[in-house]
Structure formats: C-alpha cells, structure tokens
C-alpha cells in the first residue's frame, strides 16, 4: 500500500454515510460521533455499509453456485473447476488490461481518455474518488495521471482485488467498501468523482449521481452505456446486452439525462456526447487476431473513422461537469 493508502490520510475527508457526522477511529472500527454507528474495518478495508451482507456480493460469484443436480461423484471435480475458474477470474480482474490483447487495452485506454479529456492535465495532485470502482482498473488509470485515488465499491471482494492491484503495481490508491447512494465523505471534499459503467445497474441512477455531486468539489466524470437506436439493433444481433455477465440490469442513459441533474446542482458542461465502442469483458480470439501487427493499425484506424462518422449515434456516453465557482 502506498503512503496515500491509510485511514489517517482519509480522516479529514470522511463522514458518516448515514448522518454525515464526524468519524472517530476506535478499536472496533470507525464510529460516528453523532449517530454512534460503527463501521468495521475488515482486512484493513473500511466497510461503510449498514448491512454487512451487502458487501459479501461479488460479481465473480455470479453463476458459480452449483445447481444441486450434480451427482455426488462429480461434486468434488465441479468444486475444483469452480475454484480454479474463480482464481483465473480474480487474476484477470486484478491485472487487466495487462496481459490482454493489445486492441482490448487500447480500447479501454481510449475510453478512459475520453472520460477525462477536458480535465486530464489537472489530475496531477488531485484527490479522486471512483464509485462502483470494481477491482481498481480505473483507479489505476487515474493514479497514473498523478492523482491520489480512493477506489470504492459495494463488494468486499472487489475492494480486496483493488488492494492487491495497488500492492502489486504500486498504485497510489486506497480501497473502501461503500454504496454510491450513501457515500462516506464530507460535502465537497473530493476534487473529482468518477464513475465508469457503474450507475447503469442502479434502480435509480439519478440517486447515485446526486450523491456524487454532493461529494465532488470540482468535477464529475460519467461514462455509461447510452440509450441509442444502434444499441437496440446491437441487442437484437447479440452484440449488446440487457444484463451484464454479473447479472446486473443495464439501465442506459442519455447525456441530457445526466446534464439535467448536474446543471441545476451547479455544474457546468465541459463535455457531453456519445461514441461507439464494443468489447466483451473477457476478450476472445477475434481481439487476439486484430491485435496482430498490421491488423491492429487497421482496426484502430477503422474505429476512429467509424466514430468520426457515426459516433454521435454511439452506444456509449460521456459527460464531464465542473462545479461553478
């Protein structure tokens, strides 16, 4: 863990997610001095949830439970296969896009670049919170730009993987477990609050977005699936999903929906628009093929040309807002 990654460094930013009162470090965890709620620290990771069972959910577990119909003599082999599948999935989440095909990494980097383009040069030295941050990939991208990053997710499993990413690759981030709808931070305490494909699985995405604006001191950056006619066609062709592999329902947004919340709350539009991008969470043989020399250059050039012509109808959206003085 880096020097940034400690509760002492976070203390002046933190507040009770229930009542926004001050938090005090005790033997049992972090206790609110106003409502007396205590939030435990598990394996060095603070958990800011009322319901600790919610933190046990992990998207890597989706679809991995035995169906109850396996014969007894195959149960052990099934558990072995599940164990090693889970280990491989965890390693992929900790490392990605490292080790993935070149085109896969390029697309993720391009997606990130678009999400912070208007504020990229100002990230150095900024404090950043990623919400629905998963295993810390976006936090690492931001830390590489010189930011001090807090990676938050509602899953303790994801937060542990983010911690391992930080340890292995010396990433300047600290993981926490928190709900985007009830963030454990003071008003206006974080320079940038960033979300990548996280709001769309909430029943009310605007609730999470409003909470992000409460915490953000300067900027909000939102990258999510977009509602678009091309997306409807892609769903019919099997190129887009109504639900993620983890089981989360995909609630697609419009840039104007996000701006309609940000602007009345005091944020000016720095960027808003759509673009087209497609990749599966786990890259397959097609991505490996297109990552070969020559084909990679053709694929990226074709993607740029397609976005120059049709990007405004694309399946992804990005909005970046800056708080008015």
What does this protein look like?
It is a single chain. The protein contains ten helices and twelve strands. It has 325 residues and is of the alpha/beta class. Strands 4-5-8-7-6-9-10-12-11 form a nine-stranded mixed sheet, sandwiched between helices. The chain has a three-stranded antiparallel sheet with strand order 1-2-3, with no helix packed on it. Strand 4 and strand 5 (45-48) form a beta hairpin.
Annotate the secondary structure layout.
Blueprint: H1 7-10, E1 23-26, E2 29-32, E3 38-39, E4 41-42, E5 45-48, H2 72-95, H3 102-116, E6 127-131, H4 137-144, E7 148-153, H5 156-169, E8 173-178, E9 190-196, H6 205-215, E10 216-225, H7 229-237, H8 255-262, E11 267-275, H9 285-290, H10 295-310, E12 316-323
Parallel strand pairs: 5-8, 6-7, 6-9, 7-8, 9-10
Antiparallel strand pairs: 1-2, 2-3, 4-5, 10-12, 11-12
Helix pairs in contact: 2-5
Main sheet makeup: 9 strands, mixed
Name the helix and strand elements from N-terminus to C-terminus, one letter apiece.
Answer: HEEEEEHHEHEHEEHEHHEHHE
Form type: globular
Number of strands: 12
Straight-line N-to-C gap: 35 Å
Low-confidence stretches: 63-74, 244-248
Output the number of helix runs: 10
- Spatial sequence of strands, sheet with the most strands: 4-5-8-7-6-9-10-12-11
Radius of gyration: 20 Å
Mean pLDDT: 85
What proportion of the residues is helical, as a percent range?
A: 25-40%
Strand content: 15-25%
Category from helices, strands and their pairing: alpha/beta
């Amino acid at each position: 863990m880096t020097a940034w990654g400690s509760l002492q460094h976070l203390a002046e930013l933190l507040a009770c997610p229930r009542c926004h009162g001050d938090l005090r470090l005790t033997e049992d965890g972090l206790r609110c001095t106003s409502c007396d709620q205590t939030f435990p620290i598990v394996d060095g990771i603070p958990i800011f949830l009322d319901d600790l069972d919610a933190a046990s959910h992990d998207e890597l577990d989706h679809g991995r439970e035995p169906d109850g119909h396996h014969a007894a003599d195959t149960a052990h082999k099934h558990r072995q296969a599940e164990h090693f599948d889970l280990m491989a999935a965890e390693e992929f989440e900790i490392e990605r896009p490292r080790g993935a095909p070149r085109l896969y990494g390029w697309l993720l980097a391009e997606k990130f670049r678009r999400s912070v383009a208007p504020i990229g040069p100002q990230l150095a030295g900024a404090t950043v919170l990623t919400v629905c941050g998963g295993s810390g990939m976006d936090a690492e991208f931001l830390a590489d730009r010189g930011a001090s990053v807090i990676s938050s997710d509602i899953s303790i499993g994801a937060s542990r993987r983010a911690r391992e990413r930080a340890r292995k690759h010396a990433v300047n981030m600290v993981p926490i477990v928190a709900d985007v709808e009830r963030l454990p931070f003071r008003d206006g305490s974080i320079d940038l609050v960033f979300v990548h494909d996280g709001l769309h699985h909430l029943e009310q995405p605007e609730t999470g977005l409003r909470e992000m604006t409460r915490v953000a001191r300067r900027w909000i950056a939102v990258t999510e699936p977009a509602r678009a006619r091309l997306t409807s066609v892609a769903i019919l062709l099997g190129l887009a999903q109504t639900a993620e592999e983890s089981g989360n329902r995909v609630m697609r947004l419009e840039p104007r929906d996000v701006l309609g919340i940000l602007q009345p709350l005091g944020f000016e539009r720095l960027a808003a628009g759509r673009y087209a991008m497609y990749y599966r969470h786990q890259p397959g043989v097609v991505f490996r093929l297109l990552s070969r020399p020559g084909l990679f250059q053709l694929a990226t050039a074709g993607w740029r040309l397609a976005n120059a012509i049709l990007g405004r109808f694309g399946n992804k959206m990005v909005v970046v807002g800056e708080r008015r003085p």
